[in-house]
Amino acid sequence: MRPVRFRAVTAAFAAAMLLASPAVMPAYAQSNNGPASVADLAEGLLDAVVNISTSQNIGDGGRAQPRMPAPDGSPFQDFFDEFFRDRQGDGPRNRKVSSLGSGFVIDAEEGIIVTNNHVIDGADDIEVNFADGSKLKAELVGADSKTDLAVLKVEPVKPLTEVPLGKSDVIRIGDWVMAIGNPFGLGGTVTVGIISARGRDINSGPYDNFIQTDAAINRGNSGGPLFNMNGEVIGINTAIISPSGGSIGIGFAVPTELAVNVIDQLREFGETRRGWLGVRIQPVTDEIAESLGMDGAKGALVAGVIRGGPVDDGTIEPGDVIIRFDGKDVDAMRDLPRVVAESPVGKAVDVVIIRKGEEQTVKVTLGRLEDSDQLASADADGTDPDLDEALETVDVLGMTLAELNDEGRQEFAISDDVEGVVITAVDPDSAAADKRIEPGDVIVEIAQETVMTPQDVEERIAALKQDGRRNALLMLAGRTGELRFVTVRMD
């Protein structure tokens, strides 16, 4: 299981419901809406679920083991002496750390098994234990830490049992599900529950979209399957919320709608090849939506464009709000990275944006996310010619502003490629301070209009007030050029 409060997937009251007497059982549990027994279903699936055992050799740095004395007169004194004598001496020593998890076979002929990345991460040896007691060594085909998935391969010596991957996007809250796994190393264990929620973000990675279930899951269940009542895998059990490490009825599974593409890529390439748009984004708050003239807060606000990326041709610009990508709605900022990553590299997609209050559709050809780090690093280090000398400072909305010149760049260590109006001081009691605006920040745009002098800022603020706006939308550049949007009250 993961070494956090979130562990592997969750709760047992539904199993107790199945054991209750008919006299006290709720009407829905006696009807066709819930399974009276899952024995036949479980019997056909247990052989496909495996126990995954891993070991890792870790050096102890040559430190001697502390000697624990045996009780006076103990008959085990000789054993204690020999035990610790064998562990003394100079030089580094290795020790073996073992862990347990679960997995399931998706391709019996090829010997392909799916599990969690954290189950096998760092392992030197991986062994797969089957329900009939047989064991096979496994090799790692590929792993993805962002979705916590891994694909293993064994060489079958006899026919294996496989299970199909189903469609998690059609499940409903309240649907019955069954989890099979290896809790606490006990072997194949079946629990039943319902879908408690969908689309959960537990801040474990950039593509969080978990299924939440109350099917009891504990340590060792990580990587095991979550089945629908047709015997199809609709989730890979990954995490639980648990103060004690045991099930409290809140667990999470990676949905197959997210996992299938990752599994296919790991099988084909041994790595992921995700689509990449090449933008930096931030949430659209109610204040930002009001400043942009939008009906409500939705979409992902483009705070910057990566130099050399797929949209570094003006197709998408800072200040645009992406509300739809390749036919999929972007209701919140966190939706965009997931739908982009699920798209094939090189695919041409339609992106619906709001630019200066107008909805537009632009065509974008996606790059590869795995190639983005180098470009993003270079983007932060670019240089351009210096600007002219500064004009006198002015005070606006609790900020003291000056035109950016050589002296200002040196004083605040501002990159040469940043252009705009530098903030030299911020009133600690102002609305700007409340938004964590700091000296050294540079105002690039106000209400999506470029500003180059403090007088430009004054004119834009005055125009917004005349239009009845309550907030000013500022595009700010950090000292290294990273952009962000903030709204400042003008009351």
Q: Mind telling me the C-alpha Rg? A: 29 Å
CATH level 1 name of the largest domain: Mainly Beta
Range of strand content? 25-35%
The amount of helix comes to 10-25%
Mean pLDDT: 81
Would you tell me which CATH topology of the largest domain applies? Thrombin, subunit H
Give the strand order, joined by hyphens, for the main sheet: 5-4-1-2-3-7-6
Q: What structural class do helix, strand and pairing data support?
A: alpha+beta
Q: Structurally, how many domains make up the residues?
A: 3
Count, helices:
12
Largest sheet data: 7 strands, antiparallel
Count every beta strand, where a strand is a DSSP E run of 2 or more residues: 28
Give the end-to-end Cα distance, rounded to a whole number of Å.
52 Å
Principal-axis shape: elongated
Low-pLDDT residue spans: 3-31, 61-65, 380-391
**What is the correct CATH architecture of the largest domain?**
Beta Barrel
